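Justification of computing resources. Each target in the renewal requires a structure prediction run like the one illustrated here; the chain below, 212 residues long, is used simply to show the kind of job we budget for.
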Amino acid sequence: MADILMPKATAVWLVDNTSLSFEQIADFCGLHPLEVKGIADGEVARDIRGADPIANGQLSRQELDTAQANPAYRMKAQKSRHAELLKPAKKAPRYTPVSRRQDRPDAIAWFLRNHPEIADSQIVKTLGTTKATIDQVRNRTHWNASNIKPVDPVTLGLITQLELDAIVKKAAEKKAKEDAKKGIVDDGASLRPAAETGAHHEDEDAGFHEED
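Resulting structure tokens:
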């Protein structure tokens, strides 16, 4: 079975323009033979316009001729010249403006203090930082450790409130499942909503530095 772009549209074209068997078309398009029969009978994909696999580079004329001459032959697709254009683009790493990068340690400290249930990997992804930087903030070995204070990443403009709420909710649900497996009952004290933990208090900030 080939990985065909627009399989039903391709099947429509093959049904209308070739003498291929339903099985050959089904195999090439990744459909069930009954689906192809339904297309031929006008019961399936009646509103779909056929897509020529030869024109879009998924099938060679020679391959089609070979298949039409031999009902037992199964066509092999060739890589479409459009395939790369239609692939979903990979999400680029989060970009943090230079002017905001100095704020990331403060945001890391906020996550470590208020939401220890959030995995380091998620913090890395969310803030565009590194595992090494998180460890340095956690262990007070960061070069600017004396000036780092926990500050809500939303306040810093590093992420939106919706993103933060989603991250906190996901981490809380994961922790709840893990605790349930271990038979631990969580009273909810450590999983405060982001709206509650987002407030910036000088005495709490001071407490962050006094730990050790």
